[in-house]
Amino acid sequence: MTDEAAPSSESEPRTYGLQSGKVFPAANARSLLNPLRRLVQSPRRTVNAIGLGDADRVLELGCGPGFFSPSIVDATRGPVVLMDLQAEMLAIARERVGSARASFVRGDGARLPFAPASFDAVFIATVLGEIPDRAGCLDDVRRILRDDGVLAIAETRRDSDFIPLAALRADIEPHGFAWRDKHGIGWQYVARFRAVSAPR
User: Fold this and answer.
1) Backbone phi, psi, residue 111, to 5°
2) Contact at 8 Å (CB) between 146 and 121?
3) What is the pLDDT of residue 13?
4) Residue 31 burial by Cβ neighbours in a 10 Å radius (0-12, 13-18, 19+)
5) Inter-residue contact 183 to 189 (CB < 8 Å)
6) H or E segment at 57?
7) Residue 148: which region, alpha, beta or left (left: phi > 0; alpha: psi -120 to 50)?
8) Which CATH class is domain 29-195?
């Protein structure tokens, strides 16, 4: 897995801003690292809810400035890939992580530059609602996850692109995933799905 891979071509033009449907701009990245956020969305508790194994290979898709990233690196001895659309976000995440096991890839969430079954777990926090080609993203996440791998989605109503759990399940399950469980409450949760094998 290469560090700072060249960005894949975007499937659709993106607009940046704080409103629903827009990519959160890197100019506001530091606000995502506000220490008060930890009181309502603890990185450690959120990452613990993923249930990572000791040597799991993990992709954090849409890592932003790395609010959750240090906790992910601490939770597994396996390689961790942090991916984001914006190079500025990756630069801040790199400063926060400081681990040789972490690599940083710039690219489009709907066109993942990884081989099939490259990961044991994929974590997406408050980003899925910003990706215009959500179906393409989920198809590609399934492709890069091994069978029985974990897709964990963290959502909070504090985000302008919050996805309620019922809507999230309706989006994800048709793309080769089975429901596992939910940690948290209705307005702030981590939902886990299992990558299922295609019928033979």
Assistant:
1) -140, 80
2) no
3) 59
4) exposed
5) yes
6) none
7) left
8) alpha beta
Q: Is 43 helix (H, G, I), strand (E, B) or coil?
A: helix
Structural domain boundaries of the chain? 29-195
Please give the pLDDT value at position 159: 81
Distance CA 151, CA 95 (A): 26
The Cα 22–Cα 72 span in angstroms is 26
Q: Is the pLDDT of residue 8 over 60?
A: no
- Convert the pLDDT of each residue in 97-139 to its tens digit: 988 889 999 999 989 999 999 999 999 999 999 898 999 999 9
pLDDT tens-digit series, residues 156-188: 988 888 999 999 999 999 999 999 999 999 999
Pick the closest to residue 48 from 22, 12, 74 (CA basis): 74
- Answer for the pair 85, 106: CB distance below 8 angstroms, yes or no: yes
| Residue 117 exposed, middle or buried by CB count within 10 Å (0-12, 13-18, 19+) | middle
CB atoms within 10 A of CB 42: 14
Distance, in Å, from the CA atom of 31 to the CA atom of 159, rounded to the nearest integer, reads: 13
Compute how many other C-beta atoms are within 10 angstroms of the C-beta atom of residue 166.
9
Q: What SS3 state is found at 28? A: helix
